[in-house]
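Lab notebook: predicted structure, single chain.

Context: the supervisor wants predicted structures on file for every construct in the current expression panel, including those that have not yet been purified. This is the next one on the list. No modifications to the sequence; it matches the entry in the shared construct table.
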Amino acid sequence: MAKLAVDISIGLIGVMCLWLGIFKVAEASGLIASLAKLLAPLFERLMPEIPKGHPAIGSITMNLSANLLGLDNAATPMGLKAMQDMQGLNVEKNIASNAQILFLVLNTSSVTLLPITIFLYRVQMGSAEPTTVFLPIVLATSVSTLVGLLAVAWIQKLKIFDRVVFSYFFGFSLLISSVLYAVQTQPAADMNTFSNLIGNLALFSIIVGILGFGLFKKVTIYDVFIEGAKEGVSVVVKIVPYLVAMLVAIGILRASGVLGFFVEGLTLIFTTIGINTDFVAALPTALMKPFSGSGSRAMMIETMNNYGVDSFPATIAAIVQGSTETTFYVLAVYFGSVGIQQVRHAIFCGLLADFAGIVTAILLGYWFFY
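Prediction complete. Output recorded below exactly as produced.
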């Protein structure tokens, strides 16, 4: 398992350098800033306690725009700045404000349209069609984000039927409905092929779009790309110890029979109530996800290694991994950075979004691949 962890990490270097270089061009060209401007009117209404034009709105939209593009390295510092900006408006410094809770839930629900990391691991584990999980992940993360947002809106009594908010919701719903319609028109046997096609087209279009936007903005693409690509090596080196530790621990659980006993117990429970149990082997990834990002990633890799990267359980695990973020980790980092001790309804809404995303991921896995 330790050897597997190092092999995977070394294999990630090239692709990680490629994508971090491309994303650096997106930052330098102002593409993220443009997305932030597009989202700003929405968050001015969802977070009424933040004055119009306050720096917090810019930080929030920059963070969420980075998440949309899968820019984890850029999203985290922007998210910490957003939390600090909102803390400046917070009257009770040790209690999370409504705006901070909504922002945290949107981060934990993993609102992303480009699950590059999942593709990278599937490529490294030898998947024949690494992007075939693209559409299921996008749909699952959309559901988790929507559920999290609606839960917060209900508790905080936000006016989500405001004309501007409704326009954003309508546009988003139209996009998701169009995707679902396109999928539904495909024969059942061709769904995964269709998802793979859309995933590859999306990746290629995003690469061309980012580079084209960089050219339009007169960015020195080669130099900026190299600057971002250099980060790829350091990112991979940093994850090696964590991946080794987690995979060895999970390997011990597998070899000792504990993990198998756990899966067999869940299988018995679901069989008793008449539910198909082919997805159960992916549940360790789902159960680990709210607590540890590295742990759930290791569980996903272990499932790929044990069952085969393109097997049904491994595919479900990949969709689950991309459906939500690590709730307790994000909560600890973001709230801890500003000294918040009372999180109010943040955990409930975050875990509700996680649950919705995971259930949707499993159902979509059956729809697309079973």
